[in-house]
């Protein structure tokens, strides 16, 4: 194996979305500092971006400052910007799998995934996972992983992810919440350099249940679990009413907020910092980041997509890799 710095591998995501464009712009912004390679069909990249097709990932570090190294996958039909194309589903999935394979062989430092269109993958390939997070957990054989969205303003963790709201109360159990807290605390130490992370925990119900008047989960098991884990040494605060835990003074009191469901976590961070939010999967045996946005079909192919979140995702992946000796 080469002794050159390991690149960040970027999977292409849905070709008709903004993924190829923001990856290319992120390469242009970071190429002199961070080696990277892109896995996808080079025909889907913007025409003004220099790229070079490589066959050996170990070539990426030397080429990356001058041209975006591409591990070429032939997707067949051309991309149609702004449209989901189920016929590309197998290629999109294979690009993610190839990225993981490079992490396993040590030929990439981290994986940064561009957005997939979940329905296109289901329609085109019977994709059995709600998103990357669950797919990567399956590829890694990880029992439990955690989604975190991180920005300079806020870090949030949805304890349940891509499930219908009506399924949330049953999916939340003391065992599940305990694992989410443990994984979050471990990876805040490992990747974010926080020796004693302060974690806030939202209630499930309005007003965190208002002493049982608006729901009982807080009284019955969330508060007891928090007390027990505090006794074990975790720095936890909660259950907190979710509507008052994201204003600036409240945010100053914690390093990450664990929320009970997807929108409780993602609405505050996307409102505060959509441009710099990064999606990180915690609990994996490798590093994975992603921009916080989706395929944005409404602006795809128009050179209007803001690459900031992708830039931050690559930067954070590189930083995490450096902290853990993988870069
Ligand atoms: N990590 C991933 O693979 C993710 C995939 N998705 C998928 O993306 C698809 C579309 O999801 P939506 O809910 O519509 O969210 P979206 O993030 O694609 O778009 C929401 C709005 O934000 C705008 N926007 C998004 N990114 C932007 C950027 N970089 N620059 C400027 N404007 C931007 C869009 O134009 C749109 O108006 C869905 O299939 C969803 O599942 C969504 C989030 C993450
Ligand atoms: N809403 C966040 C999202 O959909 C990202 O999911 P994933 O593909 O990173 O699992």
Automatic annotation (TrEMBL):
Substrate binds at residues 132-133, 270, 279, 288. Pathway: Cofactor biosynthesis; pyridoxine 5'-phosphate biosynthesis; pyridoxine 5'-phosphate from D-erythrose 4-phosphate: step 4/5. Its EC number is 1.1.1.262. InterPro entries: PdxA, PdxA_fam. This is 4-hydroxythreonine-4-phosphate dehydrogenase. One of its GO terms (molecular function) is 4-hydroxythreonine-4-phosphate dehydrogenase activity. The gene is pdxA. Binds 1 divalent metal cation per subunit. Can use ions such as Zn(2+), Mg(2+) or Co(2+). PANTHER family: 4-HYDROXYTHREONINE-4-PHOSPHATE DEHYDROGENASE, D-THREONATE 4-PHOSPHATE DEHYDROGENASE. Its main location: cytoplasm. It holds the Pfam family PdxA. Keywords: Cobalt, Cytoplasm, Magnesium, Metal-binding, NAD, NADP, Oxidoreductase, Pyridoxine biosynthesis, Zinc. A divalent metal cation binds at residues 162, 207, 262. Belongs to the PdxA family. NCBIfam families: pdxA, PRK05312.1. Catalyzes the NAD(P)-dependent oxidation of 4-(phosphooxy)-L-threonine (HTP) into 2-amino-3-oxo-4-(phosphooxy)butyric acid which spontaneously decarboxylates to form 3-amino-2-oxopropyl phosphate (AHAP). It catalyses: 4-(phosphooxy)-L-threonine + NAD(+) = 3-amino-2-oxopropyl phosphate + CO2 + NADH. Homodimer. Transmembrane segments: none annotated. The active site is located at the dimer interface. It is found in: Cytoplasm. Its cofactor is Zn(2+); Mg(2+); Co(2+).
């Amino acid at each position: 194996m080469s002794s050159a710095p390991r690149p960040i591998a970027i999977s292409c995501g849905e070709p008709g979305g903004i993924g190829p464009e923001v990856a290319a712009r992120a390469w242009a912004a970071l190429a002199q500092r961070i080696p990277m390679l892109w896995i996808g069909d080079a025909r889907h990249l913007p025409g003004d971006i220099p790229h070079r097709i490589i066959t050996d990932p170990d070539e990426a570090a030397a080429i990356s400052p001058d041209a975006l190294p591409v591990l070429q996958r032939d997707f067949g039909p051309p991309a149609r910007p702004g449209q989901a194309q189920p016929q590309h589903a197998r290629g999109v999935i294979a690009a993610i799998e190839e990225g993981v394979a490079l992490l396993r062989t040590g030929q990439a430092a981290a994986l940064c995934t561009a957005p997939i269109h979940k329905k296109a993958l289901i329609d085109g390939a019977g994709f059995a996972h709600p998103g990357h997070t669950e797919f990567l957990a399956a590829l890694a054989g990880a029992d439990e992983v955690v989604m975190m969205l991180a920005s300079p303003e806020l870090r949030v963790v949805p304890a349940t992810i891509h499930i219908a709201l009506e399924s949330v109360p049953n999916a939340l159990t003391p065992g599940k919440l305990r694992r989410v807290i443990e994984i979050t605390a471990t990876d805040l130490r490992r990747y974010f350099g926080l020796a004693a992370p302060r974690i806030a925990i939202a209630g499930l119900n309005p007003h965190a249940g208002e002493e049982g008047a608006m729901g009982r989960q807080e009284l019955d098991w969330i508060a007891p679990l928090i007390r027990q884990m505090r006794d074990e040494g975790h720095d936890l605060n909660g259950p907190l009413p979710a509507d008052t835990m994201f204003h600036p003074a409240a945010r100053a009191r914690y390093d990450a907020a664990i929320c009970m469901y997807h929108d409780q976590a993602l609405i505050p961070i996307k409102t505060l910092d959509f441009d710099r939010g990064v999606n990180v999967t915690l609990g994996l045996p490798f590093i994975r980041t992603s921009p916080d946005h989706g395929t944005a079909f409404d602006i795809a192919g128009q050179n209007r997509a803001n690459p900031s979140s992708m830039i931050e995702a690559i930067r954070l992946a590189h930083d995490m890799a450096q902290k853990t000796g993988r870069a």
